[in-house]
Specification:
The chain is built from 14 helices and five strands. The chain is an alpha+beta fold and 289 residues long. It starts with a helix and ends in a 6-residue tail after the last helix. Mean pLDDT is 86; it is low at 274-279.
Amino acid sequence: MKDEGSGNRLGSYLRARRELVSPAQAGLPPGGIRRVPGLRREEVALLAGISPDYYLRLERGRDRNPSPQVLGSLARVLRLDDVERTYLLGLAGARPRAPRRKRPEHVPARVHELLAHLQIPAFVEGRAFDVLASNPMAVALSPRLRPGENRLRSLLLDPEEQAFHQDWTQATADFVAALRSTIGDDTDNPRFVELVGELALSSQRFRTLWARQDVRGLDGGTITVHHQVVGELRLHRDKLPIDDVILVVYYPDKDSDSDEKLRLLAALSHTESAQAAHDEQADAPRPRA
């Protein structure tokens, strides 16, 4: 996480965001050849009502205490939404902190019991999108939802997971932006450092999205996926925080086509599990008489 570890995360974020705003979006005439994408520094300063020299100091990390009013003006010029604006304020307000005591993510026993009783796809994920636990319906929906898998790594690197999502482009953008939001100022967390480093080396799509510095939440929503057995499924997603982990559930509209297909998938999964148990029992060594 080069930009996070450079000590000038505020400047890196401002630079990345201004490169994404076109002159037309900012209400400026296009005129002339532009050497940089998006807005120039002096244009951001002009539109925000601050001096070009002061904005330059902000981007270069020479002034790390801008007022809320200045940040509000910059958020307006850079077309930040509420989540991005909050992130910007957090960067400006960040102070050196004592290292956090790292502890392993733990799935409470009651959550394992809950997963066993749910008849819809459900799983538990950690802050870095690691799958920590899942029920049989989740694995039937996608084998990449087995414990030990990482949802973002699968999305970016596994061809089957890429084909699974109807809108893979949007899904990757959402996941990467959510990861940045989740990391926040916890930039020295070994798991985050490991995952970002791995994906930066192995995925051009990740490098492109990470450089944008998008931030957003990834909570409730509706997705469409293509299951290789039952076909297209339209499912709602809800995320429920439990202690230090997140319970994720997928479910269809009641009595919809996707509801019928999910019931079929459950029946097929139950049949396969029963057959596997029968085969295992048949292969077990028999005691001697």
